[in-house]
Design brief:
single chain, mainly alpha
Length: 309
């Protein structure tokens, strides 16, 4: 049933996913969590909800624009269901804002394959990344994704390797100016240093150990089928998949080294993994019962998360 619903890009599929996600967001932020209602709180939550919808739109836009996927909603449905399984993500303001700018940076790197306006796109990617680092200093690691994209798509000009440094410098200059003008203080350099203390919920949370285990099962299964995914992809699709795979690897490193809880940092795996899940689901060799089993796992994660809330 779900396979048939998400095997196309008809409006009903997007409408259903939007309703499910917005409902989960409302439950997590206004019902299951005790908060003192106010106009400012409601507007701030609406703003975060719009950022979430932007994250969903970016995934759908990237896979369609870069022709990684066919016309289906497998990837975005996987993203929605997996995020709902980790409800604390729905309340993580800094993480969500920082991740949105990180994805805007990644989108510009993926667009390098068109071989037009390369310098502008590299500069945009580094500027977006610098803003992302304001929220999450650990995003320094994703500088490597920009350079990997330059190597794949724009290595013919050595100046392309200098532009990211300039873009990051401009971003940090703007950040420093913001603090000086509005707060009359300097930004200490330690602000930009990531804390490599590692996640603290690996073993002391039964709920998120189980959910992370389910996520790992999905990821290992998809990794096992990567050769088939690549063999069926065209050249430009393979390049985009390779860049996404490198993004996923850096995301895993971020999750391992970051000091945030696994309940929040799971987003780093969920977003890029959803792209590969969609690529796997669209293979003709993937049986419908396998896809249905995956969706059953996703829904089971949501139910388990609700029971142990």
């Amino acid at each position: 049933m779900l396979t048939r619903l998400f095997s196309h890009s008809k409006p009903i599929a997007y409408a259903m996913l939007s309703i499910v996600f917005i409902s989960a967001f409302i439950v997590e932020n206004f019902i299951s969590t005790k908060t003192d209602m106010s106009a400012s709180l409601i507007f701030s939550k609406i703003g975060i909800l719009l950022v979430f919808l932007l994250i969903m739109f970016l995934l759908n836009f990237m896979v369609k624009r870069n022709k990684i996927h066919q016309q289906h909603t497998y990837a975005i449905s996987s993203l929605v269901l997996l995020i709902i399984s980790f409800p604390e993500i729905l309340r993580s303001v800094n993480l969500v804002l920082g991740y949105a700018f990180l994805l805007l940076s990644f989108r510009r790197i993926l667009s390098l394959k068109s071989n037009t306006n390369l310098k502008q796109k590299i500069l945009d990617a580094s500027l977006f990344l610098s803003i992302s680092i304001w929220f999450i200093p650990m995003h320094w690691l994703f500088v490597s994704v920009i350079y990997f994209g330059v190597i794949v798509y724009a290595s013919q000009n050595y100046r392309h390797f200098i532009i990211p440094i300039l873009g990051l410098a401009v971003g940090f200059l703007l950040h420093t100016s913001f603090f000086l003008i509005l707060k009359d203080e300097w930004v200490h350099f330690s602000f930009y240093l990531p804390d490599f203390s590692g996640p603290y919920e690996y073993f002391d949370s039964f709920k998120y150990n189980v959910l992370l285990g389910l996520l790992m099962v999905v990821m290992v299964w998809i990794f096992f089928h990567l050769p088939t995914i690549y063999s069926r992809a065209k050249l430009h699709e393979s390049e985009s998949l390779t860049l996404t795979l490198f993004f996923l690897i850096i995301s895993i490193a971020t999750l391992i080294l970051n000091d945030n809880a696994i309940s929040k940092d799971a987003l780093y795996i969920i977003w890029p993994l959803s792209i590969f899940t969609g690529s796997y689901f669209q293979l003709k060799s993937t049986k419908k019962w396998v896809i249905e089993t995956f969706y059953l796992i996703f829904i089971s994660g949501i139910i388990f998360s609700a029971i142990y809330s």
